Amino acid sequence: MKGEAMVSRTTADAQGEVVVLLIGMRVNRFRAVHRWVPVMLAMLRMLRELARHPERGLREKILLTASPRTYYVVQYWESKEKLYAYATAPDAFHHRVWSRLNRMERAGKLRGEVGIWHEAYVVPQGSYEAIYADMPPFGLAAAHGQVPLAARGRYAKDRFAYRSGQTAAEAGSGEKID
Which string of b and e fits 109-144 if b means at least 16 CB within 10 Å? Predict the structure, then answer.
């Protein structure tokens, strides 16, 4: 089951590059509820839309708070192409929200009550590793599946060296992989 802890050590079963989007908001003025609540609700609506349409490419999400002012979502995407496609799709809710924000900004109606931000990362194979001890699928493992730690190597250096289509022993051997 998704929510049950695994009594073991596992790693994420990601293959190839990994696409991660951090996206969030910061409440700059708590009294400007009419500005920041719609931003928060828009993000929740976009996440519901993406959940209804898995073909858009969002594999997993984690909602987080950094402080009473800052809220964000860690998103794992199938590919950068699917992330870009969603961001620019005229039929997606994101397009309507972003168009509205741009119009408000040009008209001088955004007064700094709420900040919005995002950071996108395309992480090449061999540049990420993960370990989960007695955890249900979480983060990268929830997005790509979980495998026993031994499948990718006992040590972080082995998991970093892992290449799709090779065994953990080959990854740790230092042999050249095509």
Answer: eeeebbebeeeeeeeeebebbbbbeebebbbbbbbb
